[in-house]
Design brief:
The structure is a single chain. About 90% of the residues lie in helices and about 0% in strands. The chain has a domain of about 90 residues. The chain has 4 helices and no strands. The protein is mostly helical and about 200 residues long.
Length: about 200
C-alpha cells in the first residue's frame, strides 16, 4: 500500500470519526431515548450502529479496498476526539436552530391548513346544518297550518254525520286522547323554538 493511499485512508477515517460524533448527537436529539429498557429502542439502536458500520466500511473500501489496519481505528478515534473537543458545541447549536426552524415551519403549515381548509369546512357544515334546521322548522309549521286548515272543515263536515250515526259518544271518548296528542306536539314544538 502506497503512502498516498495510507494518507487518504487516514483522512477519510478522521472524517468518518467526525461523522460518527455528529450522527450520534443528531440521533440523540431527534429520537426519544427512554430511561427504561425497550425492545423497540434496542432494535433501533442496533440498526443505527449497523448503518454507521456499513458507511465506515464503504468509505474504507473506497480508500484502500477495505484493508483493516491499526491506524484505521486510531484515525476513527482521532476524528471522534476532534469532533468532541472542537466541533460539538458549534454543531449542537446549529442543529438546535435547524430543528427549531423546521418545527416552526411544521407549526405554520398546520395552522395554515387549519385556517384555510378545516375551519372553512366546519363553517360550511354549520351553515348547512342551520339551513336544514330552518327548512325543517318551516316545513313543520306549514304542516301544522295545513293540518289545521284541513282538519276543521273535515270536522264540520263529518260532525253531523257522526251525530246522525250516533258515533258522537264514541268520538267524545276519542277526542280527549287526540287533544292530549295535540298538546304534547305543541309543547315539544315550543321547546324546539326556545332552543
Amino acid at each position: 500500500m502506497s503512502l498516498t493511499i495510507q494518507l487518504q485512508t487516514m483522512l477519510s477515517m478522521i472524517t468518518m470519526g467526525v461523522w460518527l460524533g455528529a450522527s450520534l448527537d443528531t440521533y440523540g436529539k431527534l429520537l426519544y431515548q427512554p430511561r427504561s429498557f425497550s425492545w423497540i429502542v434496542a432494535i433501533r439502536d442496533f440498526l443505527f450502529w449497523c448503518i454507521q458500520a456499513l458507511l465506515v466500511f464503504y468509505v474504507l473500501y473506497q480508500s484502500n479496498l477495505g484493508e483493516l489496519r491499526f491506524y484505521v481505528f486510531a484515525a476513527l478515534l482521532c476524528g471522534y476526539a476532534v469532533y468532541r473537543s472542537l466541533l460539538q458545541t458549534v454543531y449542537n447549536y446549529v442543529l438546535d436552530r435547524l430543528i427549531a426552524f423546521v418545527l416552526s415551519i411544521i407549526r405554520f403549515i398546520k395552522k395554515s391548513v387549519y385556517y384555510i381548509i378545516v375551519k372553512p369546512i366546519k363553517w360550511i357544515l354549520n351553515l348547512a346544518l342551520s339551513f336544514c334546521m330552518i327548512v325543517l322548522t318551516i316545513v313543520w309549521k306549514i304542516c301544522l297550518v295545513l293540518s289545521s286548515v284541513v282538519w276543521k272543515p273535515l270536522w264540520w263536515l263529518f260532525r253531523p254525520i257522526a251525530r246522525w250515526i250516533g258515533g258522537t259518544k264514541q268520538w267524545q271518548k276519542v277526542m280527549p286522547f287526540l287533544t292530549k296528542i295535540k298538546e304534547v306536539g305543541r309543547s315539544v314544538w315550543k321547546k324546539k323554538d326556545k332552543r
